[in-house]
Amino acid sequence: MRISSNTLFDSNVAAMSQQQARLLQTQQQISTGRRILTASDDPVAATRVLDITQSDAMNTQYAANRGAARHTLSLAESTLQSVTSLLQDVRTATISAGNGAFANSDRQTIAAELSGRLQELTGLANSTDGTGNYLFAGFQSKTQPFVDTSAGMGYFGDDGQRLVQVGASRQMASSNSGADIFIRIKNGNGTFVTQAATANTGSGIASPGNVINPALLTGHNYQVDFTVAAGVTTYSVTDNSTLPTPTVLSAGNAYVSGQAISFDGMQLDIQGAPADGDSFTVAPSANESIFKTISDLIAALNTPLASGGGMAQLTGSLNRGLNNLDNALDNVLATRSSLGLRLNEIDALQTAGDDLSLQFRQTLSELQDVDYNKALSDLTQQQMYLQAAQQTFAKVSGLSLFDYL
Amino acid sequence: MGSNLFTSALSGMNAAQIGLATTEHNIANANTPGFTRQEVLIGSRAPQSFGGSFLGQGVDVVGVKRIYDEFLTTQVRQEQTQASYLSTYHTVIKQIDNLVADPTAGASPAMQEFFNAMNGVANNPESVSARQTLLGSAQFAANRFQAIDQRLTDIANGLTSQIAGSVNTVNTYAQQIATLNGNIKRAMASSQGQQPNDLLDQRDQLINQLNKEIKVGIQTQSDGTASVFIGNGQALVIDEQAMSLRTIQSASDPSRVDVAYKSGNKTIPLQQSSLQGGNLGAYLAFRDQSLEPARNALGRVALGLADSVNRQNRLGQDLSGVPGGNIFNAAVPRVDKGAYNTGTAVVSAAISDVGALTTSDYQLRFDGTNYTMLRSSDNTATNLGATLPQTIDGFTVSLAAGAAAAGDIFLIRPTANGARDMVVAINDPARIAAAAPMRATSALANSGSGQISAGTVNAPPPTDANLQATVSIAFTSPSTFTVTGAVPAVVGAVAYTSGQDISYNGWTVQITGTPAAGDTFTVTRNTNAVGDNRNALQLAALQNQNLLANGTTSFQGAYGQLVGEIGAKTHELDATSQAQTNMVAQTVASQQSVSGVNLDEEAANLLRYQRAYQAAAKAMQIANTMFDALMSLGR
């Protein structure tokens, strides 16, 4: 084929400039560390990089969210830890107050101690997160949730639980409402509550009782009345909730101290010697706040013993108080275990999140980072090609017939 | 007989001299662009009858011809116009390729930052500093969208002047070709059909240059002139007359220029898609097929983000207990009236559903009775009937004033302004509606195990007028409840199923567990709820939801699609333009192998003609010697 002299130059120049462009591209890849310099270098990978970068950023954000959740959960947990030991102290004090040898003044001393504990508890229930936000106020985090009112301790928060996005598909509650922790505590045994009438003069003390057949429960108010005639103590059970008139379930039952009294799926016993006309009520359990339980204990301890049934009244009150304190402790411990579970889950999510993050980084690196081994070898190769092209060009272009004329 | 010797030798010397001159011309023009090597055509003279035999009379130079292959030249031209089209397209599209996918300058990181800040507010709704950060990142996102759009506008403006420059170049070449046509015509007429080789080369070279600007068709006439055609056969040069192109404001979109054809005093708009190949074709194709679609796609992401965030924020309640408003000012669609409209109609458009928006432009046409909407991306026409407003593809067109006349057109670009007009509408961090406007509570005295969920506000906005009215749900038995406070009032008992949606006054809650008779639950105004983050969580969750393109992609996905499309197009152009450049190099090499100058060959020719000249001169010397011998006989 006939070759035009210009073609010789043109094609060599074009080839060399192509080699140079490739060399520059490789050099840029090496100097930036990125294989994809613009989207056009690898459009599919570039789009994937954007997607994965977003996923990675979101994963990092979830980690930050977990940090925030862990902070508030830990605060709540340590506050509730203090509440637990406070309640245990109150419980010990209450047990000691049952000592029959104590004088009124001794009980008043214990009552004073309990008053201090009550204030401490109010303080704990009104804990803040350090920036003035109440931990147990629901959504109303700037409103003090527990305030003493003339009608007892009032709750001014709400049932709101703040959720935190701790994972791509997991929202976790980072708070618990104060009502759930301090107020919604069933009194009695959780189903019903037994109480001696204040006018009782005998020494009968009712046990908290228990449910023996849930299917028979009615949720009614009952009354157990004692009659002592000719040295024989009998009792009757009346359902006060039937309308229009109360129904007497049984009457004239012989009373033996400590023997089980059962009706409508419930069972309780009464110990001691009830006097004629003494009565005990059995009512469905209601919510009783920890504050009320402790206030009631304080009130009972501050009341001087009346003659006759005074000691039985006190023991009844203390027993009921202890029972309610145990319920409160159970409730606080249940909340704490739920907090602990959530903290554990956060740790598990954190590990999973770290793994995921590592995976994202790895994929990103595979997609966009330059493989230095390959890039450097490419660079050497391209350099060699360019040098070869330059040297041969110089030789070939030097060949001319005119040199010999 | 004696004079014959001299004539023969002289003709030989003449031919050799012309050969030498042509060779030197070739050597001198070896580097002249468009030059075609020339060759001397020689032939022996007619012989003389001499006593029964024929005696040669020497040599004649018949002409000087250029070694030219019409087929190869046309092929070079065809490949060349495509090559300059592709490489110019590649050069201009690289500008946006670099822009959109930049890991720090693209819109992606700005959107991520916005949603990260939203999570910050969800974690700490009462924190003013978290809210301030969110406002800052909203501003940042809006600025980023605006900046990218501004860059696209800069590129579009640059393109307008590049188109004008290209049109000028075309006109200049056309004028020069017309002048050369005249010269060639006269030269051929005066030389009895001999070709003026160098003039032809010059004209070919000009046509090649013109062809790099725009694809042309050539027709050579018998008088030697070449007619040049562009587009759908519009004549650019005929004989010695050159027509011209000019840029005019586009009839359908006043913001861009169109290329028009000027014939005499008349300006005729050209169908832009008919102008193919070359730089001009690349500019026009880039603008209509890459730049404006990119702007629309970017606008759709911005619009989608702004609108979705606004809608969710309007469902919430802000830090001061007021229902949320808009966080962003979202753009409105752009409507341009056709330049040749005769009616008085003013048409306006509004976004009705960002999820249904496409990235296409639309043309609304009125035929005198009915309106037709033409979607440019796939040329789908939809008959809208005789009256407006009508809704299509997520936007509503309405007749704001006047009346349309038959033949009126309106260009509607629903998302074109989306990125440019995205503005943060609030500057008070308290206005971010992190809370929900209502809350559900259960009475403290409830004895059953029933629990009520926090509740959600029903989408879409506007919210129900009675949303914040207090509604009590009182259980009359574990399986029925009554509702007071709902609008309209609920009469009688409602059956209860655990976990079932209970929805009144624009909110929805669920109650689970077994409530006891007498238990009550209340849904009420969410006062003092500075710690409520329910709406902020929903706002943050928008990041992951497929809200665009009829629920098929997220904001990030839609943006990634834009990056992918631009990247793929650039990648394709990179490959094809390189292939085409190689193709041109190959065809040019084969064309040059015929027409190009080879210096070695010319050097050989120099020797050949030198020898021929020397030989002819020697013959003359011999003749002279013979003549001398003859003359000396008489002494």
What does this structure look like?
The complex is a heterodimer of chains A (405) and B (635). Chain A has 405 residues and is of the alpha+beta class. Chain A has 2 domains: 43-187 and 291-369, f41 fragment of flagellin, N-terminal domain (Up-down Bundle); 192-286, no CATH class. Chain A contains 7 helices and 13 strands. In chain A, a hairpin with a 2-residue loop joins strand 1 and strand 2 (152-155). The longest helix of chain A has 59 residues, at 310-368. With 635 residues, chain B is of the alpha+beta class. Chain B folds into 3 domains: 2-67 and 597-632; 73-288 and 552-587, no CATH class; 436-528, no CATH class. A 5-stranded antiparallel sheet of chain B has the order 13-20-15-16-17, with no helix packed on it. In chain B, strand 28 and strand 29 form a beta hairpin. In chain B, helix 6 runs antiparallel to helix 8 (555-595). The longest helix of chain B is centred in the N-terminal third of the chain and has 63 residues, at 128-190. Chain B is elongated and about 165 Å long. Chain B starts with a helix and ends with a helix. The relative contact order of chain B is 0.13.
